[in-house]
Design a protein that fits this description.
5 helices, mainly beta, four-stranded antiparallel sheet, 12 strands, extended
């Protein structure tokens, strides 16, 4: 079953499992969200629901946003996001979705806006290689003179005498939508609407993130890591007197 919710990134922490192994996690305040709008196959051509998250004062919304929420008879919400779910037809406007929608062990995709880095050069933005310090390169300089960290030549002058669209170079870095796929839900706290996700998710602390069931195909493990399922090898482990065990 497909599930989705809107949340806010709290920050990173770590959790110890039963074996004492440390797991780096990102804590997300997930929900509560309310269904603001419902799209149907008959009326809109597809099934989806629009969720609202984070209460906000009415004066901080535009007139169209206020009218949209008042028509649904739901509280004023700051963040709205539409999700295409296979169970969308069973949901109704006004339904509340909380963190316990997800459970420990679920696999999810997390989407957010990455941290903005401002205007960056080609070394930081595209991992270009810099010039060496010695043998005629001159002193370190970013502005004028020897250009240790500049992009350098970008093509021939006579033909084509221009730069093709899409050429990588210096420019604005970050502040773009990023999706991290197939993260594991480590724990869920329904009381405080918190979800701990294994690994890092895009965006700064306090950033809005969207959690949805992963699009990846999850294959079940057929055996423990490092353990062969070959019956001959299994019998050799059980009976070391066998020829197959002695010849190893």
């Amino acid at each position: 079953m497909e599930k989705a919710i809107i949340g806010r990134k709290i920050g990173m922490s770590q959790i110890f499992d039963e074996a004492g192994k440390v797991i780096p996690v990102t804590v997300i305040e997930a929900g509560p969200c309310v269904v603001v709008q419902k799209k149907t196959e008959e009326k809109d051509g597809y099934n989806a629901v629009q969720l609202g998250f984070q209460d906000v004062a009415e004066r901080k919304l535009t007139k169209p946003e206020q009218g949209h929420l008042k028509k649904a008879e739901v509280p004023m919400k700051k963040v709205l996001k539409e999700f295409k779910l296979n169970k969308a037809a069973e949901m109704n406007v006004g339904d509340e979705i909380k963190a316990d929608t997800f459970a420990k062990g679920d696999h999810i995709d997390v989407t957010g806006i990455s941290k903005g880095k401002g205007y960056q050069g080609v070394i930081k933005r595209w991992n270009f290689q810099r010039l060496k310090e010695s043998h005629g390169s001159g002193p370190v300089a970013r502005h004028g003179g020897p250009v240790h960290r500049h992009a350098g030549s970008m093509g021939s002058g006579t033909d084509p005498s221009r730069i093709f669209k899409g050429k990588i170079g210096a420019g604005h870095m970050g502040a773009e939508q990023v999706t991290v796929q197939n993260l594991d839900v480590v724990s869920v706290d329904p009381e405080f609407n918190l979800i701990a996700v294994c690994g890092a998710v895009p965006g700064p602390k306090g950033g809005i993130v969207y959690l949805k069931s992963t699009v990846k195909t999850i294959r079940e493990k057929k055996g423990e890591a490092g353990t062969s399922v070959n019956p001959q090898k299994a019998s050799a482990r059980a009976n070391p007197q066998k020829a197959s065990a002695r010849n190893r």
